[in-house]
Amino acid sequence: MPMICLSDFEAYAKKHLPKTTWEFFAGGADECCTRDDNLLAYKRIRFRPRVLRDMSVIDTRTILLGTEISFPVGIAPTGFHQLACSDGEKSTARAAEAMNTCYITSTYSTCTVEEIAAAAPNGFRWFQLYIHRNRALSEGLVRRAEAAGFQGLVLTADLPYVGKRRDDIRNNFQLPPHMTVKNFEGVFEGILTKEDADLAMRHGVQGIIVSNHGGRQLDGGPATIDSLIEIVDTVQDRVEVYLDGGIRTGSDVLKALALGAKCVFIGRPALWGLTYKGEEGLREVLQILHDEFRLSMALTGCQNVSEIGRNLVQFSKL
Amino acid sequence: MPMICLSDFEAYAKKHLPKTTWEFFAGGADECCTRDDNLLAYKRIRFRPRVLRDMSVIDTRTILLGTEISFPVGIAPTGFHQLACSDGEKSTARAAEAMNTCYITSTYSTCTVEEIAAAAPNGFRWFQLYIHRNRALSEGLVRRAEAAGFQGLVLTADLPYVGKRRDDIRNNFQLPPHMTVKNFEGVFEGILTKEDADLAMRHGVQGIIVSNHGGRQLDGGPATIDSLIEIVDTVQDRVEVYLDGGIRTGSDVLKALALGAKCVFIGRPALWGLTYKGEEGLREVLQILHDEFRLSMALTGCQNVSEIGRNLVQFSKL
Amino acid sequence: MPMICLSDFEAYAKKHLPKTTWEFFAGGADECCTRDDNLLAYKRIRFRPRVLRDMSVIDTRTILLGTEISFPVGIAPTGFHQLACSDGEKSTARAAEAMNTCYITSTYSTCTVEEIAAAAPNGFRWFQLYIHRNRALSEGLVRRAEAAGFQGLVLTADLPYVGKRRDDIRNNFQLPPHMTVKNFEGVFEGILTKEDADLAMRHGVQGIIVSNHGGRQLDGGPATIDSLIEIVDTVQDRVEVYLDGGIRTGSDVLKALALGAKCVFIGRPALWGLTYKGEEGLREVLQILHDEFRLSMALTGCQNVSEIGRNLVQFSKL
Amino acid sequence: MPMICLSDFEAYAKKHLPKTTWEFFAGGADECCTRDDNLLAYKRIRFRPRVLRDMSVIDTRTILLGTEISFPVGIAPTGFHQLACSDGEKSTARAAEAMNTCYITSTYSTCTVEEIAAAAPNGFRWFQLYIHRNRALSEGLVRRAEAAGFQGLVLTADLPYVGKRRDDIRNNFQLPPHMTVKNFEGVFEGILTKEDADLAMRHGVQGIIVSNHGGRQLDGGPATIDSLIEIVDTVQDRVEVYLDGGIRTGSDVLKALALGAKCVFIGRPALWGLTYKGEEGLREVLQILHDEFRLSMALTGCQNVSEIGRNLVQFSKL
Questions:
Q1: Neighbours of D95 (CB within 10 A)
Q2: What does the pLDDT look like over D203-212, one tens digit per residue?
Q3: I need a surface site. Which of A159, B132, B235, C297 has the fewest CB within 10 A?
């Protein structure tokens, strides 16, 4: 079966992963309203395509906190990549390096930060930290990631409570026993309101990731693309704003950028790619998103990312 | 089958109750639009979660007309609990007492108020009264409930007409012959408009329950969560406002409190719990709602119920 | 099978009528959007029920152009009743007389006006006229109906073009050969805009029926309940306004009256009743609507039709 | 099977065409949201029918850039008609000539412009041009079409990128080897925004076709009927505005004209007609649209196309 779009990878993963793992990856909190709305919200946004332009050259590159990446799609922090492929986060790191984009490594990685760094020594990586009550433990993790060349620290703001994923409880989901969980521009992850965006900036962050953890934590919260405008309007270009959640096509990426995101990050689609063929599978996922994003730029008349602005979209009449 | 959420209890009850009883419990008036909208209306409300807060301590307690309960979910008045479990309302009273919350006993109980009081002598209970044309009968009921320690009287405002539940008519639903139907802060139940809220306050009530009787009376009326704002804005903190109808998760409870309810009451979910395992089943239902409500508070940044306000929610763009 | 609601009669008719006849009765123009929206539009209207009222006496009577009827539901003009029952319009006339309501007899009746009048000599009837190019023919019809005691003339405004009902074309629908088509306050039928309402009043009508012929003529026109407000606001009580299309429950009737209709008329439900048991079947249909309408009045706090006003309803948030 | 409406032709084509060809004709970009919304958007528009008018004569004729056609429906440029019938674009030209309407011939035709002209020497035709980088090639094509009697040139504004049609990629869709791709009032095709409409007028076009290529290029763009108002309001009668996309009934045509289109063009329905019976099949498709359009005019009170204005429609409450 040729892999044409991200849904093909999803179908593959659903078919080939153990049911318990699939449901762990796919699960959302409670009734999964927010998980599903993350995707549906993109359908309510319509492009206003411009056509009378020279589209002979299209440049998808962008710059994240000073570092250039090949296109504005990175890897969001998700845990336990060895559940998807045997090489786990090492494959993820290699794919992100090969595609020249940013990989946010989760605290809940099944490879150590040193292993990840060794696997892709030239990769652009940030480290995501859940702040433990044991501050010494957190500090140790941060130092190791910094030493391993991670260039940014992503602080997850909305924990330590875990959302209620019904399937995981039913499945009594637990990691296989051999898996263990293994630093620093500051980026805050999980902001969804202007009040918290203000507070985060007062704490000196350089960027904000608009995220609801794939709808896995609080059910009934807004789709991230719906929250994006409120955050973007609040920060007024003082810090960079990113988004994760619900990205499935290149035009979703373009919509997020039109509404003010500097870059988006993919979570579940990365896991589907790893499930399909490890590093190569994830590269395919990223390549498809790259090609679709570039085509969407072409078809809406954007030569480079600086030309993508809010007048490119409108909200659907329906 | 582990019971993870209230839907699991619903599925159990549907499978194990006689069809006629299930349909009596589940039925709504006419085409069941209002019954169904009671649930759907919660999906149109979105949280605005705050995340940058210390969530090490979360307090779910609240106070109803001067009496503290462990969390803002009580038992709404529904009739004929012996259709769900052999001990009937005695089980209901014990579960509510054990969970330290309020139980509104229906006029149409299959245990006497004295039996109910004896089963859970320390429980916090109100008595719901349909006002009979025979005023002496009503007065006698009220005196007995008062003597049995009931602390509040809930007056049902919108009767004596019974909604048209098609399944009950088809089933020729009647109570088994051995069942009989068996006091006093004033609370008015069934108010859905600002005009009636004003009138109720002029009659000196201390609280108002926004209710449409689970959509069993008038089809085409508003979902209770949609009516809540109008009532809350009208009473302006002069009396407490409660709500029943459509509560299925802890985040539904949080939404109702955010829109101004002091407490919510559950009807059908209590019957499902009783059907599952009598007192123990209902305690499980209440415990799940407690845990989900506490988690929703944590994930939206509310340390206690006084921090839950209207800025916590917005209406969905869809 | 007990007949509880109008849907039961619909199911019966669908099962027992020849497919061609069922499709002729059920069919709408083109894609049937307007036919279906006639019903769906009622779901977007919500009651604002008042409950703190004395409901010991409820009076459903109303007056149509000076004649009292038992409740505000009459029989809309539909053709070919012998397709539903052997006695055809004679049964219809008897049922309407028995229920003391108004029967608008169609030009396309399969009984003569004299036969209809003889069948129910005390009935309150109007005659609906399609204006033929042959004015003498029209005039003759009107004189006969007048002589037969018909008290009103309903002029159908929007013909002689016939809507495109796909099933009828596929079925090559034709009347059985033995059926023939057989008069005077002025009422104009088929008005949907304020411009036409103004024009009709300038022609001296006493009433206007807001109608789209059950969605059988123009597909893509508004639901009649959606058009009603525009017409009511235009005529400002100078003439009476009625409505047909989409009435399936007593609460639909109440919504139409709340939005300003003096009376509603039923089309397809009358045919279903005739199909079920002739005169008796149609009486059952009318009795169900009467009882449901009366219950809806009780549950919303209306003692008589003069208390039914626009503050009784609001449009749904969805 | 009698062919009653355009859906019947669609069903026939789906059943009889090779799957690969069917999917090539039917396919939309990515998730096909825009392709499907092209149709759905018409359902959100409601007529405001006028009925009190003399409808004895109805005139469907209109004039396109000075040339009269029998009704405002032409043939949109689509490629590869030999995939639908052996005579390819020669059949298309004959059907358009017979129905006296405009046929926009695609650059990707499988007959030469000379063959097309010879097949229907009196037909009214425009030639659609994708502008090649090889300007000499384009110029040559234009000169040949002009010599063959084509009266207009349609410039396609939004290429040379091809939308991502998943089924075509899966099918590895390619033209059979024997097929080859074979000029001049100026019309710009593919405009969807007021900015581009302004720009096009500054370039001196005489008309604008509001088009999204049947949703085959950019997914997530607006339905053409939704874009129409923006364009019409911008051009203010300085140039003619046309539309393609989603036309399936005569009332769709009427809605487009009410919102300001001078004429609409059909794409896929023309291919279905050709598939059914070549020239004759396409004539049937056009005849059905003509008859439905005329009936819609009659039922809304429009005697001729000059009476069709924006007050004929409103947007649905839903």
A1: 28
A2: 888 999 999 9
A3: B132
